[in-house]
Each structure stands twice: as C-alpha cells, then as structure tokens.
Design brief:
Helix content is 77%, strand content 0%. The chain is mostly helical. The longest helix is centred in the last third of the chain and has 33 residues, at 266-298. The two termini are 30 Å apart.
Length: 299
Amino acid sequence: MKSENAEARPLTGIALACAGYACFAMQDALVKWLVAEYEVPEILFMRSLVIVVITGVLVRYRRHPSIFKSPYRKTVVLRAALMFVAWLLFYNAARSLGLAELTTLYFSAPIIVMFLSILVLREAIGPGRWIACIGGFIGVAIAANPTHSPNLVPAAMCLIAGFCWAWSTILIRLVSRSETTLTQMFATSLLFGIACAVSFPWIWKTPDAIGWTLMIGLGLIATLGQFLLYEGFRYAPASALAPVEYSGLIWAFLYGYLIWAEIPAMNVFVGALIIVASSLVLIAWERHGEIARKKHAAF
C-alpha cells in the first residue's frame, strides 16, 4: 500500500481507474441480470458481504489500523451513506426512465467531480482535463441519443444519484491521503451492508444455485473494481480520473453484446469514438505533464 505521500503518477492512476470501471460495468451487467428475480437491497447486501469478508481477512493479516479510529471516520460514514443513496436513487429511476435518458443524466457525475475537485480538493485543472471531460460527456450524449424529455421526478433522482456518486469520489481522494485502500473498502462495505440488511424482513428471497453464484461473482468483481479504483486515486488527482469514468459506457456496450446479443446502433459507435478520443487527449495531456515534471525535477 502507498502512503499519503505516494508519488503522483497520473498515467498509473488512469490505467488503474480504467480497469476498475471495466469491473464496474460487469458489476452493472450482473445486477441487471439479478434484479429480475431479487430486490436491489438484497443484491447489494450480498455484494457488500463478499467485500467485507475478503477485505476483513486482508486487513487483519496485514495488521492495518482500524479506520474507525481514524480522524476520517466520519468521512467514511458519510461516503457510505452517499453511495447507498446513489444506488437506491439510480435503480429506482431506472424503472421510469429509458436507458438513454438514464445514462445521459447519470454521466453528469464526472463533470460534478471536476467542479468539486476545485472547490474541495483545491486541485488545479488544466485545459486537457476539461477537454477530455466535456468531450466524454458529448460522446455519451450522442451514444445514448435521448429522443424525448425525461419525466421530471425520476430525472431529478438520477441527477441527485450522480451528485452523490461525485461526492463519494471526492471523498475517496480525501481519505486516501492517510488510510489504506483495504480499510476504506472494509468500512464502507460494512456500513453499506448494514443499511441494506434493515430491509430484509420485507424483501428477502432465498437465492437458488444460480442466484448464489451470480451474487458471489458480483461481490468478487466489485471487490476487484473498488480496489483498482481506490488505488487509482492514490496516483492521480480526482479531476484527472473523472473523464475516465466515461470508458465504462464502452464496456457496457461490449457486455451487452456478449451477454444479451445487443447490437449498438451507429450513434453508439460514433459516441464511443468520441469517448476514446477524449481519453486519448487526457492521456496525452497527462503524459506531457509527467515529462515536464521530470525535466523540472532534473534541474
């Protein structure tokens, strides 16, 4: 694990975040599969349980200090609450909105991260990151291709979910300055799971063999995705990683084709190309900055 003084390596952070968002896209595909038979809190509880078991064992083995004694413990609780609200709002909004409206509205989160990184983390944001973030959002809008104005209430729910996710992303960066990735994952998932378990008397349905397999697989994929994303925030600023979230849309298209044989329309390919181009702009910008920093350090 890196300490709070971990060397800034934006390209490493971007690579880790890309891998993490690929895992999250698979997570969403598994949730979509499971939600037809089981309620969202039950699915999320099983996901959290797997994460808690894995990270709890590793935290004890590595003898990491308890995060609940950290000066950031209140921040960890706040982040767990934000994630819980974001998930519930997002999946409830999905019942009333089409995928196009839902995707476009929710992907306002990276833009919000950019602004919060300025206000909260005091990060300096160069034109390369702004171009990548705005370009990525344009690509998402083209790929999603909204055909009509969404209903006001579910649209507001989705935007609030995006805001909550953006805040939780900023908090990862803040807490990662002093706390290890594993302890963050353990504490957040533990609190998240407890919140989901409260609803069990009303929604619990014992999974069958396929259900157990998918839920455990969901937990494993989520564990890997969270670890990669948290580590990414150790090496790169939140504003640099915000545009990378758009890459999850490309993975979603791929998983949709492989699992449900969904063939994207032409606008999807155009939007995906814009997203890829925006990501390349980001990588080129960060690479240029990294070279400049090394030259400056040499002198």
